[in-house]
């Protein structure tokens, strides 16, 4: 499910390059799909992350996972805002799509190597 979520998010991100009007119905529909698959991706990653973890460290790891996830969100917000202002209005979405494409390749590689059991 993780590669599918990243793939759909990547497609949504790249489709923003084709948008002329960010207030169109199509743009809103893409945003809804993007949000749904972002939630699906987050749940899938958490399940994989905590699946085989010993119960003694699960709380600590959940805290670290949440902290670094929020730190990533903060950093992307800052970087994405600068990209929007300096490069163009589509650039944060293209960056997101490129990162998701990279993560699809990474997840598929890990799946082929048997890392997801």
From TrEMBL:
Keywords: Membrane, Transmembrane, Transmembrane helix. SUPFAM superfamilies: MFS general substrate transporter (SSF103473). The keyword Transmembrane helix applies. InterPro entries: MFS_trans_sf. It comes from the Eukaryota. Gene3D superfamilies: MFS general substrate transporter like domains. The chain crosses the membrane at residues 25-50, 62-81, 93-113. This is Major facilitator superfamily (MFS) profile domain-containing protein. It comes from Favella ehrenbergii. The lineage of its organism: Eukaryota, Sar, Alveolata, Ciliophora, Intramacronucleata.
């Amino acid at each position: 499910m993780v590669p599918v979520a990243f793939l759909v998010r990547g497609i949504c991100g790249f489709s923003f390059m084709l948008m002329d009007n960010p207030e169109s119905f199509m743009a809103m529909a893409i945003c809804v799909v993007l949000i749904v698959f972002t939630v699906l991706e987050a749940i899938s990653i958490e399940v994989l992350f905590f699946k085989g973890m010993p119960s003694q460290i699960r709380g600590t790891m959940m805290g670290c996972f949440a902290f670094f996830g929020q730190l990533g969100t903060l950093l992307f917000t800052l970087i994405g805002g600068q990209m929007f202002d300096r490069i163009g209005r589509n650039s944060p979405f293209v960056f997101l799509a490129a990162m998701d494409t990279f993560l699809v390749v990474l997840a598929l590689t890990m799946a082929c190597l048997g890392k997801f059991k």
